[in-house]
Amino acid sequence: MSHITRRKTHQVQIDHITVGSEYPVVIQSMTNTDTADAAATAAQVKALADAGSEMVRITVNTPEAASQVAEIRRRLDDMDCAVPLVGDFHFNGERLLAEFPDCAKALSKYRINPGNVGKGAKGDEKFAYMIRTAAEHDKAVRIGVNWGSLDQSLAKKMMDANAAAGNPKTPEEIMKEALIVSALESAQKAVDLGLPENKIILSCKVSNVQDLITVYRDLGSRCAYPLHLGLTEAGMGSKGIVASTAALSVLLQQGIGDTIRISLTPEPNASRTQEVIVAQEILQTMGLRSFTPMVTACPGCGRTSSTVFQELARDIQQYLREQMSVWRWQYPGVENLNVAVMGCVVNGPGESKLADIGISLPGTGETPVAPVYVDGERKVTLKGDNMAQEFLAIVQEYVKTNYGE
Ligand code: SF4
Is residue 304 within 6 Å of ligand 1 at its C-beta? Predict the structure, then answer.
């Protein structure tokens, strides 16, 4: 779809999903349920998968959580949901994997944070146990370093070396270097312990956009592991969306990033699936992948005579998104459909002609009619109170005719 050249990486197989430069950028998400509650967690994983998440991470933090992972997998299988489950381990992963072999098997990938495994020989042992378990069960591992839980002994060692050399680098530069070194050294340890290179994915998450770009560019130039991109603690609402989009777009444009997660703080009780939709929209608007037909709509202005056009744009986008769970199989290629909903004659006809189907609603002072354009040609003019339903019927007919067998 795009002319972006991806950075060459190993290809990592995670069940039916492959992460790497030869495959489309994969979308991931994470649950916020208590994993010990198998019913709630399986339901949320299913909702995320239905929304388009191609892997879903669940926290595995306690024996109660670990004891339910196989049950969550079973429930998902019963619902015909094959999405790979990723286990997020911190502090006690080796113990949970040892005590709950069903959990070790049911997960498709383990996320290990080197900063939270433990220090010294004991930490090395714990890390080795997790890596050997992954190798034994043929599981992929993401070595996920995070600014907020960076290995402090490594950072101190690098700070001391910098001081001994007369401080050629700033403390901030050293911290970023420490993130990268932590990821690369941990990956090398994993390989030395017997985990194949094509089972390893790396991430180095930070919460500042410019730092994330710098760190990933550097990390990407120093290894061939696929990279998981995400701005950690991106925040709530538009701030989280904008910050994530800004950071990830720059990296993706440079071919860096093989799987992404948008870490939004949801509004209380809001759907967790928003992070999946934002991830899809980033990839689709950049021309990297297509997931759902896109609605082009003008922002509206003083020429807009009513809210009809905003409502129509919203309803059509929602309708198209909801249809995709069926249309994806029924009408292959329909995700590339482009629909325009415009507020008046100024830009309405032009944008409508560029779309597959477009409608130019009447603005203030215009004749109350709405010309509809199909494949660039004016096909019909709608009028009266049922314009929205009639336009929807035209869209449905177009999809059937152009994408049906
Ligand atoms: Fe305003 Fe018309 Fe432009 Fe929409 S198309 S923003 S209503 S001038």
Answer: yes
